[in-house]
Amino acid sequence: MQIKICLYGFGNVGREFARVLAAKGPYLKARHRIDAKVFAIVTSTGGVVEPRGFSERELSERSRLAHLSSQEGFREGDPEDLSKWILPWIDGAGPTVIVDATWSDLDTGEPGLSRLLKATAMGCHIVTLSKAPLVADFYGLVEAARRHSVQLKFSGATAAGLPTIDTIRVSLAGAEVQSIEGILNSTTNYILTAMSDEGLSYEDALQRTRAMGLAESDPERDVTGIDTACKVLILANAAMNARKRLSDVRITGITGITRRQIATWAMEGRSVKLVGKAALVGDDVRIEVAPAPLPHRDFFAQVREDAKAVRFTTDLFGELVMAGGAGGLTAAAGSALRDLVNLAELFRHRQGGR
Amino acid sequence: MQIKICLYGFGNVGREFARVLAAKGPYLKARHRIDAKVFAIVTSTGGVVEPRGFSERELSERSRLAHLSSQEGFREGDPEDLSKWILPWIDGAGPTVIVDATWSDLDTGEPGLSRLLKATAMGCHIVTLSKAPLVADFYGLVEAARRHSVQLKFSGATAAGLPTIDTIRVSLAGAEVQSIEGILNSTTNYILTAMSDEGLSYEDALQRTRAMGLAESDPERDVTGIDTACKVLILANAAMNARKRLSDVRITGITGITRRQIATWAMEGRSVKLVGKAALVGDDVRIEVAPAPLPHRDFFAQVREDAKAVRFTTDLFGELVMAGGAGGLTAAAGSALRDLVNLAELFRHRQGGR
To answer: In CATH terms, is domain B2-161+330-350 a member of 3.20.20.150?
Structure first.
């Protein structure tokens, strides 16, 4: 089965996705009988379209070259003009997928939200690593996907290397989710670990994460707790039908944490972690993000550096905890690949192929 | 969508499945638009058939009554005669599923293996909590399911409450599994924890697990490491195309562990856990089960009592660990329910329904 991809975004994550897709080409064909090809790459100023799809070699090369706008075949144009970037090569033979690895405004979801809505109307399935459209209008996107009979995948927007949404959707299918809580942001967990274990100041620890290039591009969203809030909001809306907005989430970040506080907690046998939590309270879902000084025996207290973790509590399976160390670009790219494979397998079943 | 179920086995697990299915009826209808009904219950001496399907109330009642053979409508007969128990009510409208919660021989997989193969030929999907058929002929069952276009689900046979196979299949889709290792047996983990933390002898700890009724019915399979070996073998065959048999697994159980050894390890800062592991070594997959004295900082060393845990190492996502405390009957029943829901959702997509 051929999957045709329009890749939006060619920064760190978009390029890593291209590199991973090219490298995993043979595996996807052999293991899943999937031939996933990128037919267009679009950035904020224009894009490159390849009507036959980029070969693995070319895709891999382009991921290593300088800015897309200086690459061969680049045409300036409005990135939101899908007639330019997708229409020329979309067909009904196999699934067409838009992979979105761009930035959008958290309040409006734009420009990503309108783009994705338009794409569903064109019959494109969605794989989004971008959170903002999902934060701004989760149910609108779900409804658009339903109406146009396309799939909406977003594991890359809900902790990527740590497979949260798929765990809820499949591994906990049939169970009712009572709460979701997690350490969902790599940057802040790294900062807090460095402050605890090495006695670094907040500023020095933050500086180090910049130097390390941890995946989230805007450290403001990380340290203010907004990134965590977005992820837990999306999960609560998806898994618990919370029907909440970002403004419903009580958010406290880590910017006010001092070395003195950390030392005091340490004497109490506690480690502070930035925890996002969505919990059923009666018929309502309460969502909150805050630093939590946890006793050392708490599983979360052991989750260190750039690792992330999540705990699901359900009626049938009690508490299920997961933790993953992969917090970088490869895991982000891998999450888009995971979504593509799952999307393709479902598409295949729909066609009647086994 | 109506799912018609033939339930094989009405011991602890089968009854709990019936109870949970009845209790979750309204949720399944509201959340998944699934009407899952049991049409027959079959045990080793015969069964009960209800051509219109048991109501939730009746199913719930039967799960609380004495042995099936003393219940209303019971007919003696060969449990393997599917013409008696399934043929009268199977139709093509929705999926028909055999839920197998019975015991079978580990070497031959019988009587379960032949039963499941026959069932696939009749167009029944398979949800098995029983490991033996999968241990005896995994690839035969996979091929039979493929040939007859039915699904083969077995999360209840691969650690139930801890969702291993679904994590690999969906959450790690696109990634190549390099190793799978886990604490996969509740009984032995409980014994080892009690020996460590409370200084119990092996015999006293084993006795306590019997009194607690931990789900695995035959403690021999637990303490010899065979239960763990079965689970990791099934996972290795399913996820790594290992092509191995139970005889290929090197197995050491916990029966030889003494309190003195445990005390020595404790002085070294180690906790012993029964670990099953499948790892890629070149082109081959090596599978082994053995007690492992782990340093306290190892995640597995913190997994206590009847909890289970697993660690997946893949090319894209590094190490992903999961741990769940639910080791009892409800989680076992829940795993069959999880499989049913996932099966139904896939069936629905196949029919073109969104």
So the answer is: no
